[in-house]
Amino acid sequence: MLTVTRRVPLSHSQTTTTEHHPALAHQFDSLEQQKDASMLGMWAFLLTEIMMFGGLFAAYLIYRLRYYEAFVAGSTSIAVTLGAVNTLVLIGSSLTMALAVSAAQRGAQKVLRGFIVATMLLGLVFLGIKAVEYHEKYVEHHIPGGVFGKFGPTDIEKDLQEKDHKTPEAAAQIARQTEIFFCFYFAMTGLHAFHMLIGFGLMTWLLWLSRGNRFGPDYYTPVELGGLYWHFVDIVWIFLFPLLYLISRTQGAH
User: Fold this and answer.
1) What does residue 74 show for φ and ψ, rounded to 5 degrees?
2) Are the beta carbons of 182 and 137 closer than 8 angstroms?
């Protein structure tokens, strides 16, 4: 018995997904499947990051309740203007990163590279301002460790006596306890800065990939993943800024 097999032509979307794209890894059947797996991996990674920073935020708030006056004194001693400027800088870098993703989706390689470079430059500005802030704390002997307040009364101790009318003994005790605040301050902002350095590595990798005109409407996953990571780092700072710079300052003014 003769059987006739009817061949059904594939649609355009089916042919494009079954053809082997240079960026398609061998373990995936299509770029869509590869993108879904990549996005799942990135979100799983970001979830672990959220838990890590969330633990630090919770510990900060617990110690702040225990050493309220010391945390208020420590918070009011850091430069809120520098923190506010850095917040605007990172918001700008999120905008340029979003524009980079949009350029990758259109296949505009030169525009993509321009926005990635702009994102990196804004990141460098942020780290530069943070370095200035760290230097101020170093000069004021607010670095946690053996030199904290070692060279006589700190500015915090003097302010507690002059502005808050604390006795020298009470001011000295509170000023010493601000070392706990600065432990959190340097740990959280330093960890955030380290994540920004990782972001620079990702941006450099994206610049290298874009030289081969690899990105376009059908493939822009690496840029989108890099954008997710960069936006996460920016969002972490959006939480750090009020937590370290604003809340205690506002309450301490009452």
Assistant:
1) -65, -40
2) yes
Tokens of 80: 């809120």
Distance CA 178, CA 74 (A): 5
233 to 80, 128, 200: CA distances (angstroms): 20, 17, 12
Architecture field, domain 31-246: Up-down Bundle (1.20)
The secondary structure of the chain in percent helix, strand, coil, rounded to multiples of 5, reads 75, 0, 25
Residue ranges of the domains in the chain?
31-246
Q: Which residues pair with 216 in a beta bridge?
A: 219
The answer to whether 122 touches 96, Cβ cutoff 8 Å, is yes
Length of the chain: 254
Tens of pLDDT, residues 222-248: 999 999 999 999 999 999 999 999 987
Q: Report pTM.
A: 0.82
Q: Name the CA radius of gyration of the chain, rounded.
A: 25
